[in-house]
Structures are given as structure tokens and as C-alpha cells.
Amino acid sequence: EDQVTQSPEALRLQEGESSSLNCSYTVSGLRGLFWYRQDPGKGPEFLFTLYSAGEEKEKERLKATLTKKESFLHITAPKPEDSATYLCAVQASGGSYIPTFGRGTSLIVHP
Amino acid sequence: ETGVTQTPRHLVMGMTNKKSLKCEQHLGHNAMYWYKQSAKKPLELMFVYNFKEQTENNSVPSRFSPECPNSSHLFLHLHTLQPEDSALYLCASNRGTEGNTIYFGEGSWLTVV
């Protein structure tokens, strides 16, 4: 069974204090790993898709990296507007196109 | 604008009412999903349709009835709901193939009174 574990569950940072969120996964064969940002009361907003170990993608203050067992979402010099829940999901090989989601990391950035 | 539109955004209904949630995607995708998200809980997959055929029903109570008339539209018909069904209902879509990103709508906030 595919599993996705995100840590920490919650993270509080001061503005400008860089950190990383972790997404550990167990799948029979990775076809894609996805990161989303979700603001309260809204649908998840797509951030990145990573397909193979060693791949990296960046968007503004966010950088996602992938190894064979985990992915990190690095947040550099965060601002209060980066406060949100960050969700990770994986898609496994074997014909299933349905992603398995983690429980998310709630990030609060204080000014 | 994600290309997945949900209506209504907010709905309040009594336990004896019948209502429907609507989802429309403009991305040319083949697979459409309904998820439930309760306060401080993870996403719960409810139903999946691929090419209009239901491929997943995650043991959802029969008071939730999905309908997928074509690959662009998805409905969730609601009847005799319970207060614990109050949640954010999210529609999503993707191409229905491996490695394909799933995109979400803004969600429909449902309150059952």
C-alpha cells in the first residue's frame, strides 16, 4: 500500500527564517510526486511535480527536491504570505492515476 | 483560476433537503474526483470517474450520489445528510494517466443544520 508521511505537522517560523518541509513516501514505483499549497477554506493550489530522483524545481521562495525515499520543500526567507498548509502527494506505477495524499504541514510565518 | 470551477461555493442545507454540488473542468481532462475535507483532517477520496465511468467508490454512504454526464462535468447529489457531513467538498481533475498532475477547484463549503 502506498504511504505518504509529512513532517512536521506544524511549523512556526519568523519572517526570513529559512526551513524545510519533509515528505517521505513508500510506493511500488514512483510516477510522480506533487506539492500543493492550501489556504484555509480553499482548494489546494498546484506548486510542483517531480518525476525522478535528483530532480529539483523552484518557484519564488520555494524549491522542491526529490530522492528515492523523500522530497523536501525548502522555503527560503519566508514571508507571512507563505503561511498555508502544504500538501504532498504521490502517484505510483501499475496503472493507477489516483494520487495518495499526505496529511499536510501547517506553516505559519510570523512578521 | 485553475480551470476547475465548483458551484455553489457555500451551501447550507437541512437534514431533509436535497441539493447538488456542481463541478466543471475546462482542461480537457478525462478523470474527475470528489474529495471531502473536514476541519483539521486530511483529504478523503470519495469518488473517481474516468471517461465517465466510475472507477472508485471509497465506501461512501448512499446519501451521497455522484453523477458524471460527460468528461467535463461532475455532480454530487446530496440527500438526507447528517451534521457530520459538514465539510469542504473538493472537485479535482487530471488526464487519468500515470504521472499526471491533479488540479483542484476552490471547493464547496457545506453546512448541514
What descriptive keywords fit this protein?
heterodimer, A: 111 residues, mainly beta, six-stranded mixed β-sheet, five-stranded antiparallel β-sheet, 11 strands, 0% helix, 59% strand, globular, B: 113 residues, seven-stranded mixed β-sheet, four-stranded antiparallel β-sheet
Write the topology of this structure.
The complex is a heterodimer of chains A (111) and B (113).
Chain A: E1 3-7, E2 10-14, E3 19-26, E4 30-38, E5 45-50, E6 56-59, E7 62-66, E8 70-75, E9 84-92, E10 100-101, E11 105-110
Parallel strand pairs in A: 2-11
Antiparallel strand pairs in A: 1-3, 3-8, 4-5, 4-9, 6-7, 7-8, 9-10, 9-11
Chain B: E1 4-7, E2 10-13, E3 18-25, E4 31-37, E5 44-50, E6 53-57, E7 64-70, E8 73-79, E9 87-94, E10 103-104, E11 108-112
Parallel strand pairs in B: 2-11
Antiparallel strand pairs in B: 1-3, 3-8, 4-5, 4-9, 5-6, 7-8, 9-10, 9-11
Going by helix content, strand content and strand pairing, the class of chain B is mainly beta
Number of helices of chain B: 0
Percent strand of chain B: over 45%
* Proportion of residues in β-strands of chain A: over 45%
Query: Could you describe the largest sheet of chain A, including whether it forms a barrel?
Result: 6 strands, mixed
The greatest inter-chain interface is formed by: A-B, 25 and 29 residues
Can you write the helix and strand succession of chain B as a string? EEEEEEEEEEE
Report the order of strands and helices of chain A. Answer: EEEEEEEEEEE
The description of the largest β-sheet of chain B is: 7 strands, mixed
Average pLDDT value of chain A? 94
Number of strands of chain A: 11
